[in-house]
């Protein structure tokens, strides 16, 4: 797992990992949780969503391989999309409710993961 290699470059459109991330941002924007989502917290939530999908559904939620970075697991393409926000919360304008890449079953699953982990900060999700 190479944390130093570049994952930026031409893209063929949004990935499913990005769709999951933007749906998590949508759920956060609609919740009453005081803490919005930073890129670090988003990466932790993606990790839990992927892990629970593998455990409960027997398949990955998205195809991107998570990498082990200094502060925990990272979906590199998603990290690079939101890295301009640094340690700040990702603006609600980045959220997306609908994506052709997410089935209703996927959305329900992501929502269940959000409900379970929404109260935890990025540090608590470590």
3D structure, described in words:
This protein is mainly α and about 130 residues long. The chain has one domain (about 15-115). It has four helices and two strands; from the N terminus they run H-H-E-E-H-H. The protein has helices spanning about 15-30, 40-55, 75-80, 105-115; strands spanning about 65-70, 70-75. Strands 1-2 form a two-stranded antiparallel ribbon. A hairpin with a 2-residue loop joins strand 1 (about 65-70) and strand 2 (about 70-75). The chain is globular, with a radius of gyration of 13 Å. The model is unreliable at about 1-10 (pLDDT under 50).
**H-E order:** HHEEHH
- Beta fraction: under 5%
What is the number of helical segments per DSSP (H or I, 4+ residues)?
A: 4
Q: Reading side by side through the largest sheet, how are the strands ordered? A: 1-2
Note the gap between the termini: 18 Å
Count of domain modules? 1
Share in helix: 40-55%
Give the C-alpha Rg.
13 Å
The assigned structural class equals: mainly alpha
| Biggest sheet statistics | 2 strands, antiparallel
Q: Assign an overall shape.
A: globular
């Amino acid at each position: 797992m190479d944390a130093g290699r570049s994952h930026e470059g031409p893209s063929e459109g949004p990935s499913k990992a990005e769709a999951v991330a933007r749906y998590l941002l949508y759920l956060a924007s609609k919740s009453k949780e005081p803490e919005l989502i930073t890129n670090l917290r988003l990466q932790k939530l993606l990790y839990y969503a992927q892990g629970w999908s593998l455990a409960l559904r027997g398949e990955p939620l998205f195809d991107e391989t998570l990498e082990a970075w200094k502060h925990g697991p990272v979906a590199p393409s998603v990290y690079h999309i939101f890295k301009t926000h640094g340690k700040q919360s990702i603006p609600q304008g980045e959220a997306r409710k609908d994506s052709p890449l997410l089935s209703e079953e996927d959305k329900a699953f992501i929502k269940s993961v959000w409900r379970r982990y929404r109260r935890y900060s990025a540090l608590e999700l470590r």
